[in-house]
Specification:
Helix content is about 35%, strand content about 20%. The protein is of the alpha/beta class and about 220 residues long.
Length: about 220
């Protein structure tokens, strides 16, 4: 059985002490730190910028999984790379040249991912898969944490898994939105490699048990 990676989303963390929150999830067994960046244009919310990312890069050696929910990632991704991002994911729904952007990110020595909103079909990104390290399937509408999981996205995950496997692409499938032990298990069964979870981990009495449950499917 393959290892499922867990990437706690700091969108649900206590922003008054992010350093402490990151240390907690690291000691609890997190594999990555998922960082949601929103600009108030692409999605109706505003979060953090590269200065904040840089400030807690020194707190942990965990890989930084930076999800750019912004209108023009081609203008800003380099600042996040300089701040310590290990993986930068941009959205398929942007107007920029996505193949070129993925190649530029990879040429900087970090990994490139693309994210698809619930309404965006896999066919929209299929030709980009050879140039990507990761596809992030949103199982909620991006913008705010704490939303309910969209079960109909499981078919999208399974379809993506089939395409990646059939073509032997070196591309992970990440899932974000309403992830807990139950929905995480469903996503893993459908073919997910990485689970992003926010509220479920950061509000848990025992974050280590919460993270463990995502890899086993047991509450």
């Amino acid at each position: 059985m393959k290892k499922i990676l867990v990437a706690p989303s700091i969108l649900s963390a206590d922003f008054s002490d992010l350093a402490k929150e990151i240390r907690i999830i690291e000691s609890a067994g997190a594999d990555w730190v998922h960082i949601d960046v929103m600009d108030g244009h692409f999605v109706p919310n505003i979060t953090i910028g590269p200065v904040v990312v840089k400030s807690f890069r020194k707190v942990t050696k965990l890989p930084f999984d930076v999800h750019l929910m912004i209108k023009e990632p081609e203008k800003y991704w380099k600042e996040f790379q300089k701040a310590g991002a290990d993986l930068i994911t941009f959205h398929s729904e942007i107007s920029a040249d996505k193949k070129k952007l993925a190649q530029e990110i990879r040429s900087a020595g970090i990994k490139a991912g693309i994210s698809v909103k619930p309404a965006t079909p896999v066919s929209e990104i299929e030709d980009l898969l050879p140039f990507l390290d990761l596809v992030l399937v949103m199982t909620v509408e991006p913008g705010f944490g704490g939303q309910s999981f969209m079960c109909d996205m499981l078919a999208k995950i399974a379809n993506l898994r089939k395409i990646i496997d059939n073509n032997k692409y070196a591309c992970l499938i990440e899932v974000d939105g309403g992830i807990n032990a139950s929905t995480g298990a469903q996503c893993a069964q459908a073919g997910a490699d990485v689970l992003v979870s926010g509220n479920y981990i950061f509000t848990a009495p025992n974050p280590k048990e919460a993270i463990c449950s995502l890899t086993t499917g047991n509450n």
